[in-house]
Design a protein that fits this description.
mainly alpha, de novo design (two linked rop proteins), 4 helices
Length: about 110
């Protein structure tokens, strides 16, 4: 599939995997945050793939915008992870988010 060739897509899937592994280390009772993080990251990846399959520039852009908005949600989840003392990798995760966001912005043009 075409979306699998996008560096942005590959980086998003890799980040989703890293965040899922991080969430698996959390104590019980934080499943709600782990679920929200997984859903938001899935939205990034899925909207990126669907947008890339669209033919019109306007449709593509709409899906890429949703993907970028979901990145903001992931960013907020990472902020909560840091605030709750659940990770020491927040800067690394945020750096990956920034890189993915820039790539998505480029795809929207």
């Amino acid at each position: 599939m075409l979306h699998e060739k996008l560096v942005c897509y590959k980086k998003s899937v890799n980040l989703a995997e890293e965040l899922c592994k991080e969430g698996a280390k959390w104590p019980r009772g934080l499943g709600y945050l782990s679920d929200q993080l997984k859903r938001a990251m899935a939205s990034v990846v899925l909207n990126l793939a669907e947008g890339n399959a669209r033919m019109s520039k306007q449709e593509r852009r709409r899906f890429f915008e949703v993907s970028r908005a979901s990145l903001a949600e992931v960013s907020a989840c990472i902020d909560l992870m840091q605030a709750f003392g659940l990770t020491h990798n927040s800067q690394s995760f945020k750096s990956s988010l920034c890189e993915i966001s820039k790539m998505l912005w480029g795809l929207m043009k």
